C-alpha cells in the first residue's frame, strides 16, 4: 500500500512540474508600487506627488500622494489605461492610507472597462469603484473586474485613483501597491 501511495504522489508531483508556468499572476499595472516615482501614470485632474511613505515600509519604494484642493468635486489624481491580453475576471486592488485629522473625505479606486478602445475612450461594458476607508493605517481594497471570454480586440481598463473633497480644502491621502491580476478564486465568474 505504501508503494502505491508513493507512486501516486510521484505522478502528481511530476504533473505539477511539467505543467506550463502560468504568467497569470503578472501585474498589468505599470509601476503600481511607485518604486520609480510616478512613471507610467497620467495626472488627469491634479498633480500628485511621490512620497517616501510606503505600504510595506520599504526604503526602496514609496507611494503616490494625491490632494483635492477643492470642496466641491472629485479629482482623479492618477490614471492608467491598461490593455487586457487575457480573459476572465481580474482583480483590481490598492493599498490606501489617509492621514488622520483631515475631516470627512474619501480616497477612491475606480475602473471602466472598454472593448475596441486601445486608448481607453468610447463606450464601456463594465465600470465600478469603491471608497477606500483607511484613516490612520494602510488598508487593502479590491474590486472584481469582469472581462469577456475571449476578450474583444483592444479590451482596456481605465484605472483611476481619485480623491473626494472634504469640507475643508486640502484633503488627501496615499495610494500604493496597485494591482490588476487574474481572479484565481472566481475565475469563471461564479461564487
- Write down the secondary-structure element order: HEEEEEEEEE
Helix share bin:
under 10%
Unreliable sequence segments = 7-24
Cα gyration radius (Å): 20 Å
Average pLDDT score: 84
Biggest sheet architecture: 5 strands, antiparallel
Question: What is the distance, rounded to the nearest whole angstrom, between the alpha carbons of the first and last residues?
Answer: 38 Å
Strand runs, count: 9
Number of helices: 1
Structural class: mainly beta
Q: How are the strands of the biggest sheet laid out side by side?
A: 1-2-9-4-7
- General shape: globular
- Strand proportion: 35-45%
Describe this structure in words.
It is built from 1 helix and 9 strands. The protein is mainly beta and 191 residues long. The longest helix is centred in the first third of the chain and has 17 residues, at 2-18. The chain is globular, with a radius of gyration of 20 Å. The chain starts with a helix and ends in a 9-residue tail after the last strand. 32% of the residues are buried. Residues 7-24 have low confidence and may be disordered.
Task: Characterize this entry briefly.
The protein is mostly beta strands and 191 residues long. It contains one helix and nine strands.
